[in-house]
TrEMBL record:
Keywords: Hydrolase
Gene source species: Paucilactobacillus hokkaidonensis
Protein name in the entry: HAD superfamily hydrolase
Residue ranges crossing the lipid bilayer per the database entry: none
Molecular function terms, GO-annotated: hydrolase activity
Amino acid sequence: MYKLLISDLDESLLDDTGNISATDLASITQLQQRGVKFVPNTGRRFTSVQPLLTQIGTVNQPNEYVISYNGGVIVENHQNKVLASHYLAHEIAEQIYQLARQRPDLGVHIYTLNEVYTYNINEDELAYIHSRKVRTINFDEPNLDFFNQRPIVKILVANLEHQKLITFQQKVLATISTPLAMTFSSNRYLEFNPAGIDKGRAVLELGQKLEVLPSEIITLGDNNNDLAMIEAAGMGIAVNNSIPAIKKVAQLTLTATNNDNPITEIYHRLFD
């Protein structure tokens, strides 16, 4: 019997316009009525998903949860209580930022616990951010001294050309000796978290807190940063638009893409 359904948001639960369908909202309600908790697991900050939590009925509710920042923070929804947090060392974030500033073709997102700061963001990236209803703060400083008293959860670089992200990843590996968790997401980002921090570890951490076994957990994802949670769950599921690496490790690949009510397909295939 499954007790948790933990889902990525962009390109998995949400359609290409950044919205969840009424059909999937109804299916989530049916799952909740059967005792299955629905938990978003996202690279975003937890405050940016409050409108979604309102839609699914878990906003500000005790014993309901969000995993954010690619596993960097686990939050109980009631009063947004932080249960676990893992921050990047400031000097590592600074090194990544300085390397990115040498590349005018890369945008940068800097995530603190409650805010997202962006540097060198082009119009396409800005439109994508706005479509996801994410509020950002423009940042154009030569260093990250501003964050000395504001711990950084993660940092990412943005470009639609994947090869440019790979090239930057290679530069980081050649320059920074400290191990890092590095993942690609949304076909536009290369994300940096502390070593060992990922969505899969957070899934297991939350499951342990709730006394839910991995075999009782379903995860849904589509991209590289979802790989660890697909592998961690008893039932790892790929939407049909997933990258090949996700489909390869998933126990189930849906016929539905993120635009075709994936939660409803899960409900019919596993709970009907």
